[in-house]
Amino acid sequence: MPLLPVILAAFFMYGFDGNVVNVALPAIRGDLGAGQAALELVVAGYVFSYATGLVIGGRLGDILGHRRMFLTGMAAFTAASVLCGLAQSPTQLVLARLVQGLSAAAMVPQVLALITTALPAADRPRALAWFGVTGGLSGVCGQLLGGVLLDGDLFGLGWRAVFLVNLPVGLAVLAVAAAVLPRTDTGRRPALDGIGALAVSGSLALALVPLVLGREAGWPLWAWAMLAAAVPAFLAALRRERRLAARGGQPLLDPQLLRGPVFRTGLAVNAAFMAYFAGFVFVLALTLQTGFGYSPLRSGLVFTPMAVLAMAGSLTGKRLLPRYGLRVPVAGGAVTALSLLVTTLGLRTTGADHALPWLLTALALMGVGNGLVLPSLIGAPMAGITPERAGTASGTLSTTQQFAAVTGVAALGGTYFTVLDGHGYATAAAAATWLALGAVLVMIGLTVRLGRVTAAAVRNER
């Protein structure tokens, strides 16, 4: 069996579990008696532990081998999913979700690293296209399959089925992965930079906690204080990593990676995309369910055209990239911008009663646009990464994406709830969509710059 379906199955499981829990929250509240704070932590704990552990997970893959870390992360993720499904109290569920997020942080960076190191160069564009498609599908399937599992009440398990379904899937992935994954251990055994790990994770936590919990808490003083401290703390951690590298040590964050203009610009493109997409999907899903009264299953069905056309667009974009280069994602960004304009027009002119045809049209356009962007979204920054840095680069890229997604949800969600106080759901969603459009325009500009720095890097290598 080929390597790619196995590692993408693990990536799908991570994304699925990040989204399916939103559908299950009302049932969890009723069964476990969870309060609002506990429900927020069920969602936020997964995001927090995943995002803060990504860089360490990627670095451990470089040190211990990507195969070993993938199998370890997959086994732990499966076990944590079972603990989630067996939880008897909100506290047990929150703790299990924290472990699940940490396990995903060990597993997910190895997916990109294995694509980079274990597949032939000619196969990587196709693999990266499917990687992007898998990420999009996992979110939509979290809504759709979550609704199916809850409505079907599989074996009378109720909400627990959305977690326990990972047991047979995880065991199957483990069995096949153990047989097909190559040993990519470089033979190097550098020590993990423990102080750097604490410094980087701590600075990331300073930003993540208020971004995830600040809105629901009403943005108290502690949230702003943590955000203010996050930037200097991260810069101090980065300076330490640079000094360690200058002394010949092995830093957690490789300064050479961050100095590379192609990788650095690629990170910025990914950040703009994830901020727009995560924020927009959050706002639209909330509007459909809370504002328009859709069930979780019906809401998920609205997103289906986007998922299907994103797959088709991604496969088309992969074929166009060798001929047209980064003009393909620029064109995709333009189509995505058009989709957001259609969304805004539909929401502002028709309101909730007649917005669905406009939204379906907009989401179809968005699927095509996102699909054209996705192959280069991962491929461009990971191009030229050496095998010994693949895990670190993958962890850094995934961390950037996760932080951008959380920031996008905070920014667009904040705009949405601010406007909602004095206006209707459709008007609030339209206001947030304008902010998403701004992020897409930034992404287009950064993609143009990425093309220039990539061309300059190629000229310098000649």
TrEMBL record:
Q: Where in the cell is it found?
A: Cell membrane
- Keywords for this entry? Antibiotic resistance, Membrane, Transmembrane, Transmembrane helix
Keyword ATP-binding listed? The answer is no
Question: Can you give the residue ranges of the Major facilitator superfamily (MFS) profile domain?
Answer: 3-462
Q: Which domain of life is it from?
A: Bacteria
Q: How does it sit in the membrane?
A: Multi-pass membrane protein
What are the transmembrane regions? Answer: 36-57, 69-88, 94-115, 127-149, 161-182, 194-213, 219-238, 267-288, 300-317, 324-346, 358-382, 403-419, 425-446
Where mainly located?
membrane
**What GO MF annotations does this protein's record show?**
transmembrane transporter activity
Give the GO terms filed under biological process for this record: response to antibiotic
| The protein's name in its UniProt record | MFS transporter
InterPro entries linked to this entry = MFS, MFS_dom, MFS_trans_sf
Answer yes or no on keyword Membrane.
Answer: yes
* Gene Ontology cellular-component annotations: plasma membrane
